[in-house]
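Internal ticket - ligand job 559, MTE:
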Amino acid sequence: MEDVSDETTTRPPGPDRPGAGRLVRLLSAVLCGLAGAAAAVGAGEAVAAVTRPAAAPVVAVGSAAIDLAPTAVKEYAVRTFGTADKPVLLAGIYLTMLLLAAGAGLLAVRRRAHGPALFGLFGAVGVWAALARPDSTLPDAFPSAVAALVGAVALDRLAGLLRRVDGPPSVDGPPRGAPPAGREPAGPLPADVPAVDPSVRSRPARRTVLVAGGATVTGAALVGVGGRVLADRRADVGAARAAVRLPAPARPAPPLPRGSAPGVPGLAPFVTANADFYRVDTALTLPRIDPRDWTLRVHGLVDRPLLLGFDELLALPLEEFDHTLSCVSNEVGGPYVGTTRWLGASLPALLRRAGVRSGAEQLVGRSKDGMTIGTPVESVLDGRRGLLAVAMNGEALPVEHGFPCRTVVPGFYGYTSATKWLVDLELTTFAAHDPYWVQRGWDRTGAVRTASRIDVPLPFARVPAGEVTLAGTAWATHRGVGAVEVRVDGGPWQQARLAEDAGPDVWRQWSHRWTGATPGTHRIEVRAVDAAGAVQEETRRPPYPSGSTGWHSTVVTVT
Ligand SMILES: Nc1nc2c(c(=O)[nH]1)N[C@H]1C(S)=C(S)[C@@H](COP(=O)(O)O)O[C@H]1N2
Ligand SMILES: [Mo]
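stdout (structure tokens):
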């Protein structure tokens, strides 16, 4: 675009000077794009606050990205960012959007239709993402559709303004302040003298674009943040959760043996505090379920389908047990494992009440947000404990751990047994339904592999020569841990001291006194043997598709 000389105008020097430069013009165009994006996101959030917060454009796109991400990418995200994977994903989406919006701004000042068209494309992606969720309904399309419309209009207006700033003088007449034809200017005109015929279309100052862009961003931020705050407040189940009165268990858990933890400083506590319990799920926004609105449907291959409210669930005889839940995505030595005291209604008892028909092979749990998790029916009914859990460690389930109800079945990784925000249980066959993770290639059964971990000393710790205390934990959930062995520098395996047994469904902590530690670097290894005598697998394998294998090791420096 050619620079337009307006030396004859009275506009003050500044960025609007002739030759103000490509950079200023480009930045102004970028600002228009960003302001359009801000308007879109703000409007989307506001509409989603009324319809459904999870359908807000950025959240919807993020959720779709989680569902679509190839397993390798998911594994990488969990490994690299841990529980920060969700904020990282959102930041990535915002960054991408900012770049595209900047591009839309640049396009819009050149060709009027291009910028808004790009916004239309954004909107289409948002609508598609919002509708792609398994639990979506048509109104979920609104936030993205409105966002695209508002963004496109905002961009079109701002870009139009900018085109008039940077463009050639309007065909309506010369720019403001230009001397009327035929009269020589005697010098700069006094500011209070109307310089031109009012019919002449004025060329706005660049400042106008900055002000309009800034106002758009500010307004969008206010509306968007306001919508988010409103939605959060409306969806807050904190009060409902605090109001839950947990009945005393009809079948309480026995107290933990006093010696179930070896009491070594630095070793994880035997029972994991709720606040420290690992969290793994695909929920970008937490499903918030008011127990008064909650129902559980039990259906499929059953004689008597059931529909249960939360009060009815609490009125059932509740059971309590200690159990170690672990994630299939846990790497060797990783943190995605925890032990907690669960309270809830017996899952096998409920299934018997519904009357499981022969031919039912798979119990599929469905969550409020559409997650599906399948457990072999045979295992659920083989006499092991299993819960529709409503509490962990004496507290109603925290929202991030599935409030108001989730399943727990010892012996299986979370992805095949522990549906959070549970709303539906279907008895079906394996052929009839592939649950979420199975669709993505993970093992259908998901039985927990024998695993062990060195917690003390920490990797690369410096420890004094002589006697060094080693300690850690091991689990072979539901089979139980029979032995833990350690070795140093590939030497002979030695039996670690096992803490007292709290049952096969929980981990077993261990300790070992390594005597005669000499200065230098040493490698400590651990392996567990399950109660049936099977030794933990040595071969290192990644979590996909059925859980990591291999012995955990730690390198320390003895000084
Ligand atoms: N609704 C829902 N339930 C879910 C998941 C999920 O993504 N959505 N993830 C499962 C997985 S992979 C694991 S390991 C456990 C983790 O439970 P936690 O977050 O309470 O530790 O929940 C399971 N239940
Ligand atoms: Mo998991």
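Auto-summary: The radius of gyration is 32 Å. The chain has three domains: 19-175+201-234, 274-439, 451-558.
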